[in-house]
């Protein structure tokens, strides 16, 4: 069945209302049959309806099946020690986790975890290396500087030869994603760390959003330039678009990339444009940005609390329907679909000083912070571990490692189900959250370690994204805004500094602090923005090491660019 946009909105409204009734003890006979006692159905069945991500993700992407692999991965049972951070709702002991028990039965590998609280992770990790009492494997928590220090010394083994022999899925991914190769191959050609690899474009570039009904009420179109935006902000302030009869609208309440990107930048501090590093707060276009922001502030279009409010204060303003533009997810603060379905994605703007739309690419295909793997020289069975890493690149492996068990396929109740899949997408998915967990995330941290380098793509995301009506809007916003078409990768994802250079670079944090202070003064009018004050500001940045820092970071970017993007 193919739905048009109105049908999708109507259907998602119906789903939410049914879900609300069910969470209060109601529900239909059809849905009641899917939930046992002490289990909440938080996302309802969408079988028979067009898959959400299928409407927007048309490109080909890699998929792997666990059915193509041979088991077990070791002829006899083996134990592999793991050191990992513990945080949040994760249990104190991982030995009873469903995922680890399933893997042990399937592969003959038992992962034995040594857990370290996140607050003391760096200290305990460094102590382990210093004493020589480190584990076979690290899942999560190894930094690039750790690789530079312990890889060439032989503490971390080179994974590339093992990938070539035992991990065809990983080799295929590295051929598909050259940016991942650049990120993980060292100067000596070795790979010491495998990150989580992702093809989920709607997560790589998150757009700004505004309320469609507000735009309709003030009679204006989606803005395309900073002049258009100014007109919209004025109308939001003066024409009571939230309809409560009070002049309480705040057109912009928090820093929005929508404005900064219009002046040609994708980050507040660091940017690389046509191969050259720039400290953003020192550029002429940034001065134009400050002048525009100061104008908004003078005319009351920028929140008076712009520089001092905390998250709770900002969130309350959004929840009270007072804010015109946001870059957060509206359904989180506006759980009623009648509210969150009103928000639409905004394409990046242009300005008088920049006619080329741009937007920050918030991640490459590698997502190191979400999961990674390093094998040390203590490991007696690295081949088996690499076969496991190859397994969690499959659809079945990724979903199990990230989300836990399918409902009905383990000793408890809860998990996920789906009715059908094709080579690209999942259909009829739903998620069941057992009591007493407040969210599925809390539940899954008790059944899987999560922080492993799996492979996320739209098919694996379908279970958690397109099965949830509230997520439909996020994918739609991404498509409406077209941000992926104009994204530019953040500098922090495109540089390679040596350990010594990282130490030197840390000295320059004071430049960002000073730039923040002056940005606030220029925008609020505490310091007038003119030739004299701007030149004094630039002179001070230079005295604090602006040129030296820029040269250091340019060298890091050049070193990154010189890295190979293909494996041998």
The gist of it:
The protein has 568 residues and is of the alpha/beta class. Helices cover 42% and strands 14% of the residues. It has 26 helices and 19 strands.
Describe this protein's structure.
This protein is α/β, with parallel strands linked by helices and 568 residues long. It is built from 26 helices and 19 strands. A 6-stranded mixed β-sheet has the order 3-2-4-13-5-18, sandwiched between helices. The chain has a 4-stranded mixed β-sheet with strand order 7-10-6-11. The chain has a 3-stranded antiparallel β-sheet with strand order 1-17-14. Helix 4 (98-107) links the parallel strand 2 (78-86) and strand 3. Helix 14 (284-298) crosses helix 24. It is globular and about 75 Å long. The model is unreliable at 1-37 and 42-49 (pLDDT under 50).
Give me some keywords for this one.
568 residues; alpha/beta; six-stranded mixed beta sheet; four-stranded mixed beta sheet; 14% strand; disordered N terminus
Radius of gyration: 25 Å
Q: Give me the side-by-side strand order of the main sheet.
A: 3-2-4-13-5-18
- The overall average pLDDT, rounded, is 86
Topology, number of strands: 19
Shape: globular
Number of helices: 26
Q: Which structural class should the secondary elements be placed in?
A: alpha/beta
- Beta percentage is 5-15%
Assembly category: single chain
Which parts are unreliable, with pLDDT below 50 for 5 consecutive residues or more? 1-37, 42-49
C-alpha termini separation = 47 Å
Main beta sheet: 6 strands, mixed
**Secondary structure: helix percent:** 40-55%
């Amino acid at each position: 069945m193919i739905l048009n946009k109105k049908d999708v909105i109507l259907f998602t409204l119906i789903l939410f209302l049914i879900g609300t009734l069910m969470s209060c003890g109601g529900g239909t006979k059809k849905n009641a049959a899917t939930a046992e006692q002490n289990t909440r159905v938080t996302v309802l069945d969408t079988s028979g309806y067009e898959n959400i991500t299928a409407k927007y993700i048309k490109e080909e992407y890699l998929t792997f099946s666990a059915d193509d692999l041979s088991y077990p991965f070791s002829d006899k049972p083996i134990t592999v020690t793991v050191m990992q951070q513990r945080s949040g709702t994760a249990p104190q002991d991982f030995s009873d986790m469903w995922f680890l028990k399933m893997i042990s039965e399937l592969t003959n590998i038992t992962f034995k975890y040594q857990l370290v609280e996140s607050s003391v992770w760096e200290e305990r990790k460094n102590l382990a290396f210093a004493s020589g009492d480190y584990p076979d494997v690290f899942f999560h928590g190894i930094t690039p500087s750790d690789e530079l220090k312990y890889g060439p010394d032989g503490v971390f083994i080179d994974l590339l030869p093992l990938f070539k022999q035992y991990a065809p899925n990983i080799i295929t991914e590295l051929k598909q994603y050259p940016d991942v190769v650049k990120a993980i191959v060292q100067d000596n050609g070795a790979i010491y760390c495998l990150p989580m690899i992702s093809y989920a474009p709607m997560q790589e570039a998150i757009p700004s959003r505004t309320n469609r009904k507000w735009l309709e009420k003030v009679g204006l179109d989606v803005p395309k330039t900073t002049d258009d935006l100014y007109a919209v902000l004025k109308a939001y302030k003066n024409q009571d678009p939230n309809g409560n009869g009070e002049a309480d609208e705040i057109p912009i309440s928090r820093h929005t990339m929508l404005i900064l990107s219009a002046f040609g930048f994708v980050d507040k501090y660091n940017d690389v444009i046509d191969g050259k590093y720039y400290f953003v707060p020192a550029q002429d276009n940034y001065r134009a940005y400050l002048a525009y922001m100061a104008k908004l502030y003078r005319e009351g279009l920028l929140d008076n609390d712009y520089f001092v409010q905390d998250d709770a204060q900002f969130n309350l303003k959004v929840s009270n329907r007072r804010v015109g533009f946001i870059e957060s997810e509206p359904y989180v603060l506006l759980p009623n679909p009648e509210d969150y379905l009103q928000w639409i994605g905004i394409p990046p703007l242009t300005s008088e000083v920049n006619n080329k739309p741009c937007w920050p690419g918030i991640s490459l295909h590698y997502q190191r912070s979400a999961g990674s793997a390093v094998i040390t020289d203590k490991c007696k069975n690295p081949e088996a571990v690499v076969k496991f890493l190859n397994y969690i690149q499959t659809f079945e492996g990724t979903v199990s490692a990230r989300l836990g068990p399918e409902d009905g396929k383990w000793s408890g109740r809860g998990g996920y189900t789906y009715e059908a899949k094709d080579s690209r997408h999942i259909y009829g998915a739903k998620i069941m959250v057992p009591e007493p967990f407040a969210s599925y995330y809390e539940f899954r941290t008790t059944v899987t370690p999560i922080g492993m380098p799996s492979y996320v793509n739209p098919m694996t995301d379908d279970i958690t994204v397109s099965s949830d009506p509230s997520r439909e809007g996020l994918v739609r916003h991404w498509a409406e805004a077209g941000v992926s078409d104009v994204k530019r990768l953040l500098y922090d994802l495109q540089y390679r500094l040596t350990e010594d250079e990282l130490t030197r670079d840390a000295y320059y944090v004071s430049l960002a602090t000073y730039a923040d202070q002056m940005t606030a003064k220029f925008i609020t009018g505490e310091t007038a923005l003119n030739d004299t004050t701007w030149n004094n500001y630039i002179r001070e940045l230079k005295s604090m090491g602006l040129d030296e820092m820029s040269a250091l970071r340019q060298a890091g970017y050049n070193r990154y660019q010189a890295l190979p993007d293909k494996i041998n």
